[in-house]
Amino acid sequence: MTAKILLAQPLVDKIKNELRLRCEGLKSQGTTPSMCVVLVGENPASLTYIKNKKKICEEVGAHFQLLHLPAETSEQDFLEHLSRLNSDSKIHGIIIQLPVTDKLKKLDIPNLVAPSKDIDGFHTANTKAIYYGTTDLNLLLPCTPKGVIHLLQFYGIDVKGKHIVVLGRSLIVGKPLAMLLSNLDATVTLAHSKTKNLEEITRTADILISAIGIPHFIKTSALNSAKHTVVIDVGINSLNGKVTGDVDPDVIEVASAISPVPGGVGPMTVISLIQNLMCAAENQLKGKK
Ligand code: NAD
Hints:
Layout: E1 4-5, H1 9-28, E2 34-40, H2 44-59, E3 63-69, H3 75-86, E4 93-96, H4 124-131, H5 143-154, E5 163-167, H6 174-183, E6 187-191, H7 198-202, E7 207-210, E8 230-233, E9 237-239, E10 242-244, E11 257-258, H8 265-288
Parallel strand pairs: 1-11, 2-3, 2-4, 5-6, 5-7, 7-8, 8-11
Antiparallel strand pairs: 9-10
Helix pairs in contact: 1-8, 2-8, 5-6, 5-8
The chain binds nicotinamide-adenine-dinucleotide.
Nicotinamide-adenine-dinucleotide binds next to helix 8.
């Protein structure tokens, strides 16, 4: 068996077309959806991520701006910049690019952006909907979990009643994803670095999602070929200068379907961000009327 490859591109193209129309609709009412990324200091990886966000943002007709602050920016200056952006009615979405500098690490970063402009979906006012059981992907929800669920839905992979093993319990991926999947009636196991007998668990998965950040960690032995497991690889790692996921390339021989790296969850995350921007701009326009 060779796994079906769950490419993001066809879905990204479809969503992009929808977003272009929504953007035109907003512009015809005098609102140009605009996002601002706040970057502090120099971080080459962050600059690459930001470039991808800018490209898609502009492709759908929205406005992008980068506020690049020096590495020595103090807490007070940083908070002043955010306060100004939060009250600027021309900015509909704000992202604080992670990681922030050590000087700013003590700040409650997820809660600094106004909930209505929180297009990363990290503010507790937005994440609480997940805890309360929402299945509404039009809310401002964290982008990677949202993108993973859209990808599964696009390829007709039903999660209801399935055993889904999520590896990694970060605030931006593993935890919200596990909870959203549970809201969608999956039976979820959330595993992490202290989980014992990991492969015994992963071999019972109908869907295995890895978000741990270790290149090629998931080997063929982690799957039971009789289960026809769907594998979603969230990892973005560097191995010998190449971008690789958490999943070993040999897994393609035992899985029924697999999301590639690059070209899988990464592009879904960026397009989800722009979906969030459009929702934020539409909500803010409705709020004005
Ligand atoms: P993180 O780095 O904050 O945490 C890693 C998680 O993996 C922890 O919860 C830890 O318990 C778990 N873990 C570590 N070793 C493990 C092991 N041996 N077995 C089981 N679990 C283990 O996580 P993150 O920020 O969610 O990032 C995870 C990966 O996903 C990284 O490669 C990151 O680059 C990638 N990522 C990709 C996207 C995307 O758009 N594709 C978005 C965010 C993160």
